Amino acid sequence: MNSPASIPLHSGKQPIQQGNLLEFPKNPIDCMRRLHAECGDLAVLEDNGQRIAFVFSPELNRQVLTDSNTYHSQFFALRGGRRSAQRRVTSGLLSMNGSEHRENRRIMMDVFTRRILPEYHNTICDLSHSLMEDWELGQQRDLNVEMVHFMLRMTSALLFGIDDAEYSVELGSKIDRWVRQNHEVGIGALVSAPEFTDSYGTLLSMADDLEASIKEMFAKHRDGATKGQRSDVLSLMFQAQGSEQQLSDEKLLGHATLTFAAAHLTTAHTFSWTLFLLAQHPEVMQRLAEEIAQATTGETPTFQELQSLPYLDWVIKESMRVLPASSYSQRVTSTAATLGSLNLPQATPVIFSQFITHHRPDIFEDANEFRPERWETASPSAYEYLPFGAGPRMCIGAPLAMMELRTALAVILKKFHFQVNPGTTVNGQVISTMLGPTSTVEATLLPTTELPSTVPVYGSIHDLIDLPSAAKPDAIRRAA
Ligand code: HEM
């Protein structure tokens, strides 16, 4: 938390606004859009001497993201006491800085790049088929619920080697609830609001419970893992522990928890948004269906076939541009720093935003529209398009996430198309930095011989992106 500065906060023109810091956590996207419009690429929201700084341009993104010595990661505002379970379960990459981060990241990168990707192909295909096992043509499904559940199973399988559906949902949901509680209590830490910090006790007991569950899962897993027959990420971490003696049990516990937390909802939200966008853009769905039909044979695409689906890649990239599951991230200054025209005191939170950067019209034409074709020519820099972050803390799971998305979408779309139900409400909201649907996304299962049509929908989705005019609520009013 940041107290009134002994150093002058700014020099030259002031992009500082007095306001209520709670405006940011209540609706991060609206708050950032307003600050960007009113203050420009660099903004500071100040409330009784407490401040949050915001950067909105690729160049400022670059400055903040490349200088990891000055801009520390502080994903979890509340780490708990030194010997607490909260401290241990938050001890993963997202909370580390400096040499500790570099060393642990090296070990994790090694784990993530070792012969994993081709081996995961079969697991992803199997789970995609099992997702559709009880789907029938004409049925109504909530795309959001389906994808969150699907990714609980997938993430538990790929990261922890868990193939028991019930157990994976139980453990994964526990991690998700704990992440959400961190976010709620963390807002209190950011803005010093007592109403948020009341739930700190609940957070600590959730961490105790979560730690016990992760330890139990480790115990169940260990026997199988040491036989070297398994290729889930945890098995590889156990092996790294054995060979390098550098990963203590405590570190492993934090890495396992935070990797799951980083992997699950980000990927689930990306799936939900992509299926929703495809259903509302039939011409995109048609081109994609043609590509999948031409490039793949059989019910299940092979690993090789999946390497030649360029349009599918554009669809995923565009979905992650226009509705990035990671909508913003936070750093905190480890020392007094100069950023653009500002002098920031030590411990100032600094926010950068994928959502704002990806919606800049000077980088992407018709930036609020979903247009996969733009990727035929678009070649943004790493700081203009950053769904997985950029620089020394860029997502280590990006290749795995892309493989999950590419593979599962191809398998699913070979069997079903989706028609969003007319008049359904689609709300998007940022919770714990992640932009996901917070309402049902009701859809009907279509055969692949049919294309969906664009239908009017209600909800805050219209504040986030420009859907085709047939999707706007006035289409419902006109028809009435
Ligand atoms: C579509 C899915 C995903 C998205 C959008 C996403 C996004 C991100 C972003 C933006 C960051 C950087 C955050 C920052 O700079 O503060 C990040 C970091 C990270 N992600 Fe992902 N991620 C995804 C999937 C995954 C998966 C599947 C895994 C693991 C299996 C994973 C593990 C991590 C880890 C461990 C970090 C921390 C890296 C570090 O601090 O060095 N992510 N992710």
UniProtKB/TrEMBL annotation:
The gene is ptlI. It comes from Fuerstiella marisgermanici. PANTHER family: CYTOCHROME P450, CYTOCHROME P450 12A4, MITOCHONDRIAL-RELATED. Its EC number is 1.14.13.133. Belongs to the cytochrome P450 family. The keyword GTP-binding does not apply. This is Pentalenene oxygenase. InterPro entries: Cyt_P450, Cyt_P450_CS, Cyt_P450_E_grp-I, Cyt_P450_sf, Cytochrome_P450_monoxygenase. The keyword Oxidoreductase applies. One of its GO terms (molecular function) is monooxygenase activity.
